[in-house]
Specification:
single chain; mainly alpha; three-stranded antiparallel sheet; two-stranded antiparallel ribbon; 10 helices; 46% helix
Length: 394
Protein backbone atom coordinates (compact mmCIF):
# COMPACT_ATOMS: atom_id res chain seq x y z
CA UNK A 1 0.00 0.00 0.00
CA UNK A 2 1.36 3.43 -0.95
CA UNK A 3 0.90 6.05 1.75
CA UNK A 4 0.54 9.76 1.18
CA UNK A 5 3.33 12.10 2.16
CA UNK A 6 0.80 14.75 3.30
CA UNK A 7 -0.20 15.08 6.99
CA UNK A 8 -3.23 13.02 8.02
CA UNK A 9 -5.25 16.17 8.71
CA UNK A 10 -4.85 17.44 5.15
CA UNK A 11 -7.52 16.03 2.86
CA UNK A 12 -6.19 14.90 -0.53
CA UNK A 13 -7.01 17.14 -3.46
CA UNK A 14 -6.98 14.21 -5.88
CA UNK A 15 -9.29 11.23 -5.54
CA UNK A 16 -6.45 8.76 -5.98
CA UNK A 17 -3.44 10.57 -4.54
CA UNK A 18 -2.32 13.21 -2.09
CA UNK A 19 -0.93 16.62 -3.00
CA UNK A 20 2.78 16.19 -3.88
CA UNK A 21 5.29 17.67 -1.52
CA UNK A 22 7.93 20.07 -2.89
CA UNK A 23 10.59 17.83 -1.39
CA UNK A 24 9.20 14.76 -3.15
CA UNK A 25 9.27 15.31 -6.92
CA UNK A 26 6.90 13.13 -8.95
CA UNK A 27 8.45 9.99 -10.37
CA UNK A 28 5.63 8.81 -12.63
CA UNK A 29 3.56 10.29 -15.40
CA UNK A 30 0.27 8.86 -16.59
CA UNK A 31 0.01 7.63 -20.14
CA UNK A 32 -3.15 8.22 -22.20
CA UNK A 33 -5.34 5.18 -22.58
CA UNK A 34 -4.28 3.89 -25.94
CA UNK A 35 -2.83 0.53 -26.84
CA UNK A 36 0.11 2.12 -28.63
CA UNK A 37 1.18 5.40 -30.18
CA UNK A 38 3.00 6.08 -33.40
CA UNK A 39 5.51 8.90 -33.80
CA UNK A 40 2.89 11.14 -35.42
CA UNK A 41 0.43 10.53 -32.60
CA UNK A 42 3.03 11.38 -29.99
CA UNK A 43 3.87 14.65 -31.73
CA UNK A 44 0.23 15.78 -31.77
CA UNK A 45 -0.60 14.62 -28.24
CA UNK A 46 -1.96 17.34 -25.88
CA UNK A 47 0.17 18.56 -22.95
CA UNK A 48 0.10 16.22 -20.01
CA UNK A 49 -1.42 17.16 -16.67
CA UNK A 50 0.63 17.35 -13.47
CA UNK A 51 1.26 13.80 -12.31
CA UNK A 52 0.00 12.31 -9.07
CA UNK A 53 2.39 10.83 -6.54
CA UNK A 54 0.59 7.54 -6.30
CA UNK A 55 0.78 4.82 -8.94
CA UNK A 56 -2.68 3.39 -9.36
CA UNK A 57 -3.21 0.62 -11.92
CA UNK A 58 -6.59 0.54 -13.57
CA UNK A 59 -8.00 -2.95 -13.86
CA UNK A 60 -9.80 -2.06 -17.08
CA UNK A 61 -6.56 -1.07 -18.86
CA UNK A 62 -5.53 -3.72 -21.47
CA UNK A 63 -1.87 -2.68 -21.38
CA UNK A 64 0.18 -3.34 -18.19
CA UNK A 65 1.20 -0.23 -16.27
CA UNK A 66 4.87 -1.26 -16.32
CA UNK A 67 4.86 -1.17 -20.13
CA UNK A 68 3.29 2.30 -20.08
CA UNK A 69 6.02 3.63 -17.78
CA UNK A 70 8.79 2.25 -20.01
CA UNK A 71 7.12 3.59 -23.16
CA UNK A 72 6.79 7.02 -21.59
CA UNK A 73 10.51 7.18 -20.77
CA UNK A 74 11.64 5.77 -24.14
CA UNK A 75 9.11 6.98 -26.76
CA UNK A 76 10.49 4.97 -29.68
CA UNK A 77 9.47 2.01 -31.81
CA UNK A 78 10.80 -0.33 -34.50
CA UNK A 79 9.61 0.63 -38.00
CA UNK A 80 8.84 -2.07 -40.53
CA UNK A 81 10.81 -2.04 -43.81
CA UNK A 82 9.09 -0.17 -46.61
CA UNK A 83 10.21 -2.65 -49.28
CA UNK A 84 10.35 -6.43 -49.24
CA UNK A 85 11.65 -7.20 -52.73
CA UNK A 86 13.56 -5.86 -55.71
CA UNK A 87 12.78 -6.26 -59.41
CA UNK A 88 15.45 -7.16 -61.94
CA UNK A 89 13.87 -7.22 -65.39
CA UNK A 90 11.17 -9.89 -65.41
CA UNK A 91 12.32 -11.33 -62.08
CA UNK A 92 11.24 -10.35 -58.56
CA UNK A 93 13.70 -11.18 -55.81
CA UNK A 94 12.21 -11.27 -52.33
CA UNK A 95 14.39 -10.29 -49.39
CA UNK A 96 12.85 -13.16 -47.43
CA UNK A 97 14.43 -15.63 -49.84
CA UNK A 98 17.77 -13.81 -49.71
CA UNK A 99 17.89 -13.99 -45.92
CA UNK A 100 17.10 -17.70 -46.00
CA UNK A 101 19.81 -18.26 -48.62
CA UNK A 102 22.32 -16.30 -46.54
CA UNK A 103 21.39 -18.39 -43.51
CA UNK A 104 22.02 -21.61 -45.45
CA UNK A 105 25.43 -20.35 -46.59
CA UNK A 106 26.47 -19.33 -43.07
CA UNK A 107 25.27 -22.61 -41.57
CA UNK A 108 26.99 -24.67 -44.27
CA UNK A 109 30.27 -22.80 -43.82
CA UNK A 110 30.31 -23.27 -40.05
CA UNK A 111 29.26 -26.92 -40.30
CA UNK A 112 31.96 -27.64 -42.87
CA UNK A 113 34.66 -26.15 -40.63
CA UNK A 114 33.45 -28.19 -37.66
CA UNK A 115 33.34 -31.42 -39.69
CA UNK A 116 36.84 -30.86 -41.08
CA UNK A 117 38.14 -30.27 -37.56
CA UNK A 118 36.74 -33.70 -36.63
CA UNK A 119 38.66 -35.35 -39.47
CA UNK A 120 35.97 -35.44 -42.15
CA UNK A 121 36.94 -34.98 -45.78
CA UNK A 122 36.84 -31.29 -46.78
CA UNK A 123 33.94 -30.43 -49.06
CA UNK A 124 31.69 -33.24 -47.85
CA UNK A 125 29.16 -30.57 -46.84
CA UNK A 126 28.14 -30.24 -50.50
CA UNK A 127 27.01 -33.87 -50.50
CA UNK A 128 24.79 -33.04 -47.55
CA UNK A 129 23.44 -29.85 -49.10
CA UNK A 130 22.27 -31.78 -52.16
CA UNK A 131 20.03 -33.86 -49.89
CA UNK A 132 19.12 -31.67 -46.92
CA UNK A 133 18.15 -28.42 -48.69
CA UNK A 134 15.60 -29.85 -51.17
CA UNK A 135 14.08 -32.27 -48.66
CA UNK A 136 14.09 -29.57 -46.00
CA UNK A 137 12.12 -27.22 -48.26
CA UNK A 138 9.66 -29.96 -49.17
CA UNK A 139 9.18 -30.90 -45.52
CA UNK A 140 8.73 -27.25 -44.55
CA UNK A 141 6.01 -26.77 -47.16
CA UNK A 142 4.17 -29.98 -46.29
CA UNK A 143 4.17 -29.10 -42.59
CA UNK A 144 2.83 -25.61 -43.30
CA UNK A 145 0.03 -26.86 -45.54
CA UNK A 146 -1.01 -29.55 -43.06
CA UNK A 147 -1.11 -27.07 -40.18
CA UNK A 148 -3.02 -24.43 -42.20
CA UNK A 149 -5.58 -26.55 -44.09
CA UNK A 150 -8.20 -23.80 -44.26
CA UNK A 151 -5.86 -21.70 -46.40
CA UNK A 152 -5.61 -24.34 -49.13
CA UNK A 153 -8.61 -26.67 -48.90
CA UNK A 154 -11.96 -24.93 -49.26
CA UNK A 155 -14.72 -24.68 -51.82
CA UNK A 156 -13.36 -23.08 -54.96
CA UNK A 157 -9.73 -23.29 -53.84
CA UNK A 158 -6.98 -23.67 -56.42
CA UNK A 159 -5.29 -26.88 -55.29
CA UNK A 160 -2.15 -26.20 -57.30
CA UNK A 161 -1.32 -23.44 -54.83
CA UNK A 162 -0.37 -26.17 -52.36
CA UNK A 163 3.01 -26.20 -54.12
CA UNK A 164 3.17 -22.42 -54.70
CA UNK A 165 5.97 -21.97 -52.22
CA UNK A 166 6.99 -18.66 -53.83
CA UNK A 167 3.82 -17.14 -52.37
CA UNK A 168 5.10 -17.86 -48.86
CA UNK A 169 4.36 -20.50 -46.30
CA UNK A 170 7.08 -22.74 -44.88
CA UNK A 171 7.53 -24.13 -41.37
CA UNK A 172 10.82 -24.62 -39.55
CA UNK A 173 9.69 -27.80 -37.82
CA UNK A 174 8.84 -29.32 -41.19
CA UNK A 175 12.26 -28.36 -42.51
CA UNK A 176 13.85 -30.14 -39.53
CA UNK A 177 11.97 -33.34 -40.35
CA UNK A 178 12.73 -33.20 -44.07
CA UNK A 179 16.31 -32.14 -43.47
CA UNK A 180 16.83 -35.04 -41.04
CA UNK A 181 15.80 -37.49 -43.74
CA UNK A 182 18.19 -35.81 -46.17
CA UNK A 183 21.04 -35.93 -43.64
CA UNK A 184 20.46 -39.65 -43.06
CA UNK A 185 20.61 -40.35 -46.81
CA UNK A 186 23.76 -38.25 -47.17
CA UNK A 187 25.39 -40.12 -44.29
CA UNK A 188 24.66 -43.40 -46.04
CA UNK A 189 26.33 -42.01 -49.13
CA UNK A 190 29.40 -40.40 -47.55
CA UNK A 191 30.00 -42.77 -44.64
CA UNK A 192 29.98 -39.92 -42.10
CA UNK A 193 28.14 -40.82 -38.91
CA UNK A 194 24.68 -39.26 -38.76
CA UNK A 195 25.16 -38.00 -35.21
CA UNK A 196 28.57 -36.55 -36.06
CA UNK A 197 26.97 -34.44 -38.76
CA UNK A 198 24.04 -33.49 -36.53
CA UNK A 199 26.39 -32.28 -33.78
CA UNK A 200 28.42 -30.26 -36.26
CA UNK A 201 25.24 -28.70 -37.65
CA UNK A 202 23.64 -27.68 -34.31
CA UNK A 203 25.08 -24.15 -33.86
CA UNK A 204 24.77 -23.45 -37.58
CA UNK A 205 21.06 -24.28 -37.45
CA UNK A 206 20.46 -21.57 -34.87
CA UNK A 207 22.38 -19.07 -37.00
CA UNK A 208 20.39 -20.00 -40.11
CA UNK A 209 17.10 -19.62 -38.24
CA UNK A 210 18.19 -16.21 -36.95
CA UNK A 211 18.80 -15.04 -40.52
CA UNK A 212 15.44 -16.48 -41.56
CA UNK A 213 13.64 -14.40 -38.93
CA UNK A 214 15.02 -11.27 -40.56
CA UNK A 215 13.11 -12.40 -43.63
CA UNK A 216 9.91 -12.44 -41.55
CA UNK A 217 10.71 -8.87 -40.50
CA UNK A 218 10.88 -7.74 -44.13
CA UNK A 219 7.62 -9.56 -44.84
CA UNK A 220 5.79 -7.78 -41.97
CA UNK A 221 4.65 -11.10 -40.53
CA UNK A 222 4.67 -13.30 -37.42
CA UNK A 223 4.46 -10.43 -34.94
CA UNK A 224 3.17 -10.73 -31.39
CA UNK A 225 0.50 -9.18 -29.22
CA UNK A 226 -0.01 -5.41 -28.82
CA UNK A 227 2.51 -3.63 -26.63
CA UNK A 228 3.67 -0.14 -25.68
CA UNK A 229 7.26 -1.18 -24.98
CA UNK A 230 9.87 1.05 -26.64
CA UNK A 231 10.85 -1.73 -29.02
CA UNK A 232 7.29 -2.27 -30.24
CA UNK A 233 7.02 -3.13 -33.92
CA UNK A 234 5.13 -0.83 -36.30
CA UNK A 235 2.72 -2.72 -38.58
CA UNK A 236 0.38 -1.17 -41.14
CA UNK A 237 -3.31 -1.56 -40.32
CA UNK A 238 -3.93 -3.04 -43.78
CA UNK A 239 -1.85 -6.10 -42.91
CA UNK A 240 -3.74 -9.34 -43.42
CA UNK A 241 -2.92 -10.42 -39.86
CA UNK A 242 -4.06 -7.13 -38.26
CA UNK A 243 -6.45 -7.96 -35.39
CA UNK A 244 -9.94 -6.54 -35.75
CA UNK A 245 -10.86 -3.71 -33.44
CA UNK A 246 -7.37 -2.32 -32.84
CA UNK A 247 -6.73 1.36 -33.68
CA UNK A 248 -4.18 2.35 -36.30
CA UNK A 249 -0.76 2.98 -34.82
CA UNK A 250 -0.86 0.01 -32.46
CA UNK A 251 2.56 -1.49 -31.81
CA UNK A 252 3.24 -5.22 -31.50
CA UNK A 253 5.82 -7.46 -29.86
CA UNK A 254 8.66 -8.06 -32.39
CA UNK A 255 8.79 -11.82 -31.95
CA UNK A 256 11.27 -12.06 -34.82
CA UNK A 257 13.74 -10.00 -32.77
CA UNK A 258 13.16 -12.06 -29.64
CA UNK A 259 13.93 -15.25 -31.53
CA UNK A 260 17.04 -13.79 -33.17
CA UNK A 261 18.47 -12.81 -29.79
CA UNK A 262 17.52 -16.18 -28.28
CA UNK A 263 19.18 -18.07 -31.14
CA UNK A 264 22.40 -16.08 -30.96
CA UNK A 265 22.64 -16.71 -27.23
CA UNK A 266 21.95 -20.37 -27.95
CA UNK A 267 24.94 -20.57 -30.30
CA UNK A 268 27.24 -19.44 -27.48
CA UNK A 269 25.59 -21.82 -25.00
CA UNK A 270 25.92 -24.82 -27.32
CA UNK A 271 29.57 -24.15 -28.11
CA UNK A 272 30.37 -23.71 -24.40
CA UNK A 273 28.54 -26.87 -23.30
CA UNK A 274 30.15 -28.87 -26.10
CA UNK A 275 33.64 -27.80 -25.05
CA UNK A 276 32.98 -28.02 -21.32
CA UNK A 277 31.49 -31.52 -21.31
CA UNK A 278 32.94 -32.91 -24.58
CA UNK A 279 29.48 -33.70 -25.92
CA UNK A 280 29.27 -36.12 -28.84
CA UNK A 281 27.01 -38.87 -30.21
CA UNK A 282 24.17 -36.44 -30.98
CA UNK A 283 24.08 -34.80 -27.55
CA UNK A 284 25.09 -31.43 -29.03
CA UNK A 285 22.12 -31.61 -31.37
CA UNK A 286 19.91 -32.54 -28.43
CA UNK A 287 20.89 -29.28 -26.72
CA UNK A 288 19.87 -27.45 -29.89
CA UNK A 289 16.43 -29.10 -29.86
CA UNK A 290 15.89 -28.26 -26.19
CA UNK A 291 17.10 -24.67 -26.48
CA UNK A 292 15.20 -23.84 -29.65
CA UNK A 293 12.06 -25.60 -28.47
CA UNK A 294 11.97 -23.73 -25.15
CA UNK A 295 12.28 -20.37 -26.87
CA UNK A 296 9.74 -21.24 -29.54
CA UNK A 297 7.16 -22.18 -26.90
CA UNK A 298 7.30 -18.62 -25.56
CA UNK A 299 7.36 -16.79 -28.90
CA UNK A 300 4.54 -18.88 -30.32
CA UNK A 301 2.41 -18.18 -27.25
CA UNK A 302 2.41 -14.41 -27.88
CA UNK A 303 1.97 -14.52 -31.66
CA UNK A 304 -1.43 -13.52 -33.04
CA UNK A 305 -1.28 -14.75 -36.64
CA UNK A 306 -3.87 -17.42 -37.54
CA UNK A 307 -3.00 -20.97 -36.51
CA UNK A 308 -4.67 -24.28 -35.88
CA UNK A 309 -5.50 -24.79 -32.19
CA UNK A 310 -5.21 -28.25 -30.62
CA UNK A 311 -6.34 -28.68 -27.01
CA UNK A 312 -6.04 -24.96 -26.43
CA UNK A 313 -2.51 -24.55 -27.82
CA UNK A 314 -1.23 -23.45 -31.21
CA UNK A 315 0.03 -26.34 -33.30
CA UNK A 316 3.57 -24.91 -33.33
CA UNK A 317 3.57 -24.81 -29.54
CA UNK A 318 2.93 -28.54 -29.57
CA UNK A 319 5.70 -28.97 -32.12
CA UNK A 320 8.07 -27.00 -29.88
CA UNK A 321 7.11 -29.14 -26.88
CA UNK A 322 7.83 -32.20 -29.02
CA UNK A 323 11.26 -30.80 -29.92
CA UNK A 324 12.12 -30.32 -26.24
CA UNK A 325 10.94 -33.83 -25.37
CA UNK A 326 12.88 -35.35 -28.29
CA UNK A 327 16.03 -33.46 -27.25
CA UNK A 328 15.78 -34.80 -23.71
CA UNK A 329 15.26 -38.36 -24.96
CA UNK A 330 18.25 -38.18 -27.33
CA UNK A 331 20.48 -36.79 -24.60
CA UNK A 332 19.53 -39.44 -22.04
CA UNK A 333 19.64 -42.40 -24.46
CA UNK A 334 22.93 -41.44 -26.10
CA UNK A 335 24.60 -40.75 -22.76
CA UNK A 336 23.74 -44.26 -21.62
CA UNK A 337 24.61 -45.99 -24.88
CA UNK A 338 27.93 -44.22 -25.50
CA UNK A 339 30.10 -43.53 -22.47
CA UNK A 340 33.26 -42.77 -24.44
CA UNK A 341 34.22 -40.49 -27.30
CA UNK A 342 33.51 -41.24 -30.94
CA UNK A 343 36.31 -43.45 -32.32
CA UNK A 344 35.93 -41.86 -35.74
CA UNK A 345 33.56 -39.46 -37.50
CA UNK A 346 33.02 -42.22 -40.06
CA UNK A 347 31.19 -45.52 -39.85
CA UNK A 348 33.49 -48.58 -39.54
CA UNK A 349 35.17 -49.35 -42.86
CA UNK A 350 34.14 -46.04 -44.44
CA UNK A 351 36.92 -43.82 -43.09
CA UNK A 352 38.51 -41.25 -45.36
CA UNK A 353 42.32 -41.18 -45.53
CA UNK A 354 43.95 -37.81 -46.02
CA UNK A 355 46.54 -38.28 -48.82
CA UNK A 356 48.63 -35.39 -47.48
CA UNK A 357 48.85 -36.72 -43.94
CA UNK A 358 51.94 -38.79 -42.93
CA UNK A 359 51.04 -42.44 -42.41
CA UNK A 360 53.86 -43.23 -39.95
CA UNK A 361 55.17 -46.19 -42.05
CA UNK A 362 58.66 -46.36 -43.59
CA UNK A 363 58.64 -45.41 -47.25
CA UNK A 364 61.29 -46.56 -49.79
CA UNK A 365 62.52 -43.43 -51.50
CA UNK A 366 65.39 -45.03 -53.48
CA UNK A 367 65.59 -44.84 -57.27
CA UNK A 368 64.40 -48.20 -58.66
CA UNK A 369 66.45 -47.67 -61.86
CA UNK A 370 69.76 -47.05 -60.06
CA UNK A 371 72.25 -49.97 -60.18
CA UNK A 372 72.90 -51.82 -56.95
CA UNK A 373 76.36 -51.69 -55.33
CA UNK A 374 77.18 -55.36 -56.23
CA UNK A 375 76.70 -54.59 -59.92
CA UNK A 376 79.18 -51.72 -59.65
CA UNK A 377 81.79 -53.99 -58.02
CA UNK A 378 81.47 -56.61 -60.77
CA UNK A 379 81.99 -54.02 -63.49
CA UNK A 380 85.08 -52.59 -61.77
CA UNK A 381 86.63 -56.09 -61.35
CA UNK A 382 86.15 -56.86 -65.03
CA UNK A 383 87.95 -53.66 -65.88
CA UNK A 384 90.95 -54.59 -63.66
CA UNK A 385 90.22 -52.03 -61.02
CA UNK A 386 88.79 -52.24 -57.56
CA UNK A 387 86.36 -50.26 -55.57
CA UNK A 388 88.06 -47.23 -54.07
CA UNK A 389 88.76 -47.58 -50.38
CA UNK A 390 87.22 -44.65 -48.67
CA UNK A 391 88.26 -45.79 -45.18
CA UNK A 392 90.20 -43.16 -43.33
CA UNK A 393 93.69 -44.34 -42.33
CA UNK A 394 95.41 -43.07 -39.22
Amino acid sequence: MVRSSAPPSSPPSHPEASTPSPASPPIWRPVPRVLARSAATRASAPPRQPPPTRLAHRTDDPVPTCERCVSDVFPVSIPSPEVSSITLGPFTIHFYALWILLGIIVAATLTSRRLTARGVEPGVIFDYLLWTVPLGIIGARIFHVLTHPNDYFFEGAELWKVIAIWEGGIAIFGSLLGGAVGAWLASRQTGVRFWTFADALAPGMLLAQAFGRLGNYFNHELFGQPTTLPWGLEIESTNAAWPLGLPAGTLFHPTFLYEIIWNLIGVAVILWLERRFRLQWGRVFSIYLIWYGLGRIVWESIRIDPSEIIFGLRVNVWAAIGAVALGIIINVVQRRRHVGVEPSPYYPGRAWVDPDAPSGDLVDTSDPDAPESSDVDDRLSAAGTSTPDTTTRS
